[in-house]
Amino acid sequence: MLKSIILSVFSCFVLLQVQAQNLYMPRDIQQAFKKETRSPDGRPGKNYWQNHGRYTISITALPPDRNIKGTEQIIYFNNSPDTLKRLNMKLILNIHRPGAARFGNTGVVGMGINVRYYCMITDKFGFFPQMGISSLNNTTYFKYGTLNIGAMPNFVFFPAPQLGVNLGFGNIGYSLDYQTKNHNFNLGLNNNISFGLNYYWGRK
Q1: 51 in a structural domain
Q2: Does residue 54 fall inside a structural domain?
Q3: How far apart are CA 50 and CA 71, in angstroms?
Q4: What is the C-alpha to C-alpha distance for residues 136 and 146, in angstroms, rounded to an integer?
Q5: What is the arithmetic mean of pLDDT over 98-115?
Q6: What secondary structure, in 3-state letters, does 121-183 show?
Q7: Which residue has the higher pLDDT, 118 or 65?
Q8: Domain around 144
Q9: How many distinct structural domains can be found in the chain?
Q10: In the chain, what percentage of residues exceed pLDDT 70?
Q11: Alpha-carbon gap, residue 133 to 109, rounded angstroms
């Protein structure tokens, strides 16, 4: 009886050993063992290597100016036996600024008004400039956003008295960033084309 118990325990132990030896091993782990960059016990192997970089960053800040200028030099040391055909780099701007989008979406709310002045050439064909002003703001930090002022020329055609088809082309625009105070002006005739179908209430 005792011999049977000992034999059973020994058989179970051998079975467990065989099952443990047959566990699936990922291909990259097998390659690491084969190249001796990693030891079976998890320690670095004799051919272990590690890449590193050396960063030299120069920053210029002149308060009260909100703009920060700088340069960066990166020297990358490749200690691997392979040739690096390309490098992966990520540039994340203003990552620590309140309201900056990190790994999620940032809500934006906009308000604006547009004004049109129609100059009719015939009863059915005319021209109008569309002028507008709008503000886009971050919903979490409302003071972050942009002010936009612009105008766009349009042609309009009335196939019916109260139905107008308009074609807009080009724009004159000005934008201002509330936080950085940066502003820019743009002018173009072919960089913004729009098509619209409008119903004119009360037109006869």
Answers
A1: no
A2: no
A3: 26
A4: 5
A5: 72
A6: CCCCEEEEEEEEEEEEEECCCCCCEEEEEEEEEEEEEEEECCEEEEEEEEEEEEEEECCCCCE
A7: 118
A8: 108-199
A9: 1
A10: 80
A11: 14
**Residue 41 has which token pair?**
């016990």
Q: Is residue 133 part of a domain?
A: yes
Whether residue 69 is contained in a domain is answered as: no
pLDDT recorded at residue 99: 57
Instruction: Spell out a b/e string for 181-204, using b for 16 or more CB atoms within 10 Å of the CB, else e.
Output: eeeeeeeeeeeeeeeeeeeeeeee
Strand partners, 60: 69
Which of 147, 165, 149, 145 is closest to 157 using CA atoms? 165
Closest CA to 154 of 111, 108, 194, 183: 194
Locate 64 and state its tokens. 């009260």
Token pair 């990922």 in the structure block, residue? 26
Predicted TM-score (pTM) of the model is: 0.45
